[in-house]
Amino acid sequence: MAAVKSSSTGSNAVTLVELKHSLVPSRWEDTVRTVGIAEYREAAVSLAHAFATDDYAKYLLTSDDMAGLCPEEKWKLHVDIMAYAVASHYYDGLVTTIGPDYDSVALWVPPGKSLNSWWTVLRSGMWRLYFQLTPEAKKRYFDEVIPLLHDTKAEVLGDREDDAWYLAFIGTKPNARGRGYAKKLLDDMIQKADADNRLVYLESSSAANNAYYKKFGFEAKREIFLKRGRMPVCLTIMVRDPRPLRKVAYPSTIKKFQLVPARTG
User: Fold this and answer.
1) 243-252: b (≥16 Cβ within 10 Å) or e
2) CA–CA gap between residue 97 and residue 102 (Å, rounded)
């Protein structure tokens, strides 16, 4: 940010621009970093904005028995759901972000891990959903969403399930889109997955996102549907197989070079 000061003497006008150093670490603009538990609320608010119009994210909040909640109450519950998700991934997974204000956030579950332990549910606050959701919303979440996602992942990956990174959420705030933040979050994990020969698994909630993920090597495996709402919500299951890192080939014999003094004169 610059502070601008203007002064005028006679017919001459001078504008002085004073450049001020920002306290926001400059590396946050283009470096992927891990989110700590002290930052989970900020990351959750960012994801809440990123998924504010997403059909999957709205699925729990659009049941008929939610009609009595005002928009502010629904927004608070939406943020709470994201907060529990961020916290649970901090405890048993990985939360990454990029941008000066948690502009893009990704929630990852490492290979062989799950977020279902009672200790994670307790610490993350996820247990509160049982008391915060309406009866229909609880049926959608506990009886439909969780079993469907769990069973589909097991069916699609089979005996490779424990070898896959699971991308549960990735989102960029509307005012920060177009800066390549999501690409950097994906590239960061894809490089790790390739180095360890791991798959990457995700559920995509929009056709536009499907095309985006295909650019990173993801392939659509199947579609699943959440059917308790008035309109079904489609999720596309996508998987990226690991790609071997490129190796530089060196010749088997290396020629010896003789140093020759530079000629002068």
Assistant:
1) eeeeeeeeee
2) 6
